[in-house]
Amino acid sequence: MLRSILRSSTSNASRRGFASGASPERKVAILGAAGGIGQPLSLLMKLNPLVTRLALYDIAGTPGVAADVSHINTGSEVVGYMGDENLGKALEGSDVVIIPAGVPRKPGMTRDDLFNINAGIVKSLCTAIAKYCPNVGTSVAQMALVNMISNPVNSTVPIAAEVFKKAGTYDEKRLFGVTTLDVVRAKTFYAGKAKVNVAEVNVPVVGGHAGITILPLFSQATPKANLSDDEIVALTKRTQDGGTEVVEAKAGKGSATLSMAYAGAVFADACLKGLNGAPDVVECSFVQSTVTELPFFASKVRIGKNGVDEVLGLGALSDFEKEGLEKLKPELKASIEKGIKFAHQN
Ligand code: NAI
């Protein structure tokens, strides 16, 4: 993607010079922009030609990150905002708000172990989004598209939904849990095992974003490959444990940041394309859903001018995937309920 971003960045810069207004002005805010994910994500969003304004917010460190990123000769304007008193300015007028704020895992921790700290951070940031983000258009107040990266995503997305409901700004079409890294991993691992060109691989990943709730659907992977049942089981486990593989390799220095920034940039780019009316923008995401009996679920989602255009169904599952789906439901349900309960109690 980096290469295509760089290429399109050049062509877009010249296009802007000659025919202004070719694509709409778009403001992207990154909350947690000075962190391990936030910094490379800021870089990648600065390279995205669809972004005209980039607001980098964190509780510390954003002046440096913003000064650094702003020197890159792409079209967008970059502004750093630091501290709670500047959060409103960072958010105002945003079309997409990406949230990678919060603590990452250390070895031995599950994503749920992060709940106590990150739930509060997400709640306060979403309260501010509800206050500052509705872009009051001609008749309806439109919320920015929120891309939730902070873990545990299975709980932070329901927390955000409850905060927005309470503020009267909830639009289920505009809230996305970012599960793209699971897709990125599934594609990479599948391509390695199937010996196919990774650039051509597609694998839907459904369910949630933690351990066994991550369910890659390798039976639907393309290009098709003749993998054995054992190979599918191993690929599934590696995808589910991909985050832990990185946490252990980093040995106490955090979790995935670079691959996550890439995944976050891919997903935000899809949101911008959808907002701009590009046809057939489909990514997997953890959204409000009726695909199963659970109120939130990750599956393929078509993104359009108002956010979620359509939540796509699961398609045909193998017996192994059907079993995985039933196994993940109780854990995912509990994580969703934990988020909802937190939002109401705190
Ligand atoms: P990090 O600790 O390097 O950075 C987090 C940043 O958030 C810091 O700069 C910190 O100052 C900032 N922050 C803390 N409280 C804040 C607040 N109230 N407002 C704004 N910023 C605030 O952590 P890292 O590695 O960047 O991870 C961030 C989050 O992303 C973690 O929750 C992690 O678990 C999650 N993550 C999610 C993935 C996914 O697939 N969805 C994959 C990898 C990580």
Automatic annotation (TrEMBL):
Active site: 209 (proton acceptor)
EC number: 1.1.1.37
GO cellular component: mitochondrial matrix
Residues annotated as domain Lactate/malate dehydrogenase C-terminal: 179-342
Superkingdom assignment: Eukaryota
Compartments it resides in: Mitochondrion matrix
InterPro entries on file: L-lactate/malate_DH, Lactate/malate_DH_C, Lactate/malate_DH_N, Lactate_DH/Glyco_Ohase_4_C, Malate_DH_AS, Malate_DH_type1, NAD(P)-bd_dom_sf
Classification via PANTHER family: MALATE AND LACTATE DEHYDROGENASE (PTHR11540), MALATE DEHYDROGENASE 1, MITOCHONDRIAL-RELATED (PTHR11540:SF58)
Family statement drawn from the similarity comment of this UniProt entry: Belongs to the LDH/MDH superfamily. MDH type 1 family.
Protein name in the entry: Malate dehydrogenase
Organism: Ipomoea batatas
Lineage, uppermost ranks: Eukaryota, Viridiplantae, Streptophyta, Embryophyta, Tracheophyta
Encoding gene per record: MDH7
